[in-house]
Design brief:
This protein is an alpha/beta fold. It has eleven helices and twelve strands.
């Protein structure tokens, strides 16, 4: 048991703040080294660019959801990591926002090699205080993510009232009476409250899902939730892009669960990052383009009723040729 590498699974619905939390883990002075596995729902990866350039091993999976189509990839990555386990202290897995944590957690018990070399330390679920009520009604994944959580970060508390926070905590407790709830803004909390918890309790999970160790937990996503991935090697006109993007979120934001992108703007040397959750959006520069990375814009939308052809045409209209 002493040779088992602890694994923390970060889960939470689209836009809750998982990557923000991951960056805190990678940059705080804790004296530990983590291997990181990132999973995205979409054809192209964005989160890997949003992870701060730390001295860590980062593995990206963006060809499907970790709880179903790429679970075999996770097992292979963990197997490869175990061959050089002396290079890190623990593993952090950031799941896609629509992942069911059950099949991910199951991996650490039903795969013999993974179970022998790793230990599931805790499932940490980040929830968006502003959008949680609607998400609980619309997305069964959110309920599953809270039900399996050892720790819930009730994030973005600055966007709701004190009474709303109390109601949200009551709803979380109704789903999972055993979880630890931490109120946060931008996921700011002591990592001692998240990592090295020895918190995952198999017996509690078996009470929730008695067949946890026997079933394959095939996970079916909401077929209405799709992703649209856009690329451009031509720089973007910032004014045109911001006008289009803000209008899009204002008019269709209810259907756009998540939007994120790394953009190459005309007459700018730095990468510009945008992130949106429904109609809320923020953007900022994150530094110059790496020497080994092609200067191109990548933009991903995840949501319902997405018009891929229309989005592509509007995105191309922002390009400077």
């Amino acid at each position: 048991m002493s040779q088992q590498v602890p694994v923390t699974v970060l889960t939470g619905f689209l836009g809750a703040g998982k990557t923000t939390l991951l960056n805190r883990i990678l940059t705080e002075e804790h004296g530990r080294k983590y291997a990181v596995v990132i999973n995205e729902f979409g054809e192209i990866g964005i989160d890997n660019d949003l992870v701060i350039d730390a001295d860590e091993e980062v593995f990206e999976m963006n060809n499907g959801c970790i709880c179903c189509t790429v679970r075999g990839d996770l097992i292979r990555i963990l197997g490869g990591l175990m061959k050089r386990a002396e290079r890190f202290d623990a593993i952090v897995i950031e799941t896609t926002g629509i992942a069911d944590p059950a099949p991910v957690a199951q991996t650490f018990f039903v795969d013999r090699d993974v179970a022998r070399r790793t230990r599931l330390d805790a499932i940490v679920t980040v929830v968006d205080a502003l959008h949680l009520p609607a998400q609980l009604e619309d997305s069964h994944e959110v309920v599953e993510q809270i039900a399996f959580a050892d720790v819930v970060l009730l994030n973005k508390i600055d966007l709701v009232s004190s009474d709303e926070l109390l109601n949200l905590e009551a709803r979380i407790r109704h789903i999972n009476p055993w979880t630890k709830i931490l109120r946060t803004e931008r996921c700011a909390t002591s990592l001692e409250r998240l990592l090295g918890q020895h918190a995952f309790d198999l017996e509690r999970i078996l009470e929730i899902e008695p067949d946890f160790l026997e079933s394959d937990h095939a996970h079916e996503h909401d077929e209405k939730v799709t992703s649209v991935s856009l690329r451009s090697r031509h720089p973007l006109d910032r004014d045109r892009f911001e006008d289009w993007f803000s209008t899009l979120l204002r008019e269709q934001g209810q259907d756009i669960l998540r939007s994120k992108g790394v953009l190459a703007l005309a007459n700018e040397d730095q990468r510009y990052v945008i992130q949106g959750v429904h109609m809320l959006m923020e953007g900022d520069f994150i530094g110059t383009w790496p020497a080994d990375q092609e200067r191109e814009s990548r933009l991903v939308f995840i949501g319902r009723n997405l018009d891929e052809a229309g989005l592509r045409q509007q995105f191309e209209a922002c390009q400077v040729r």
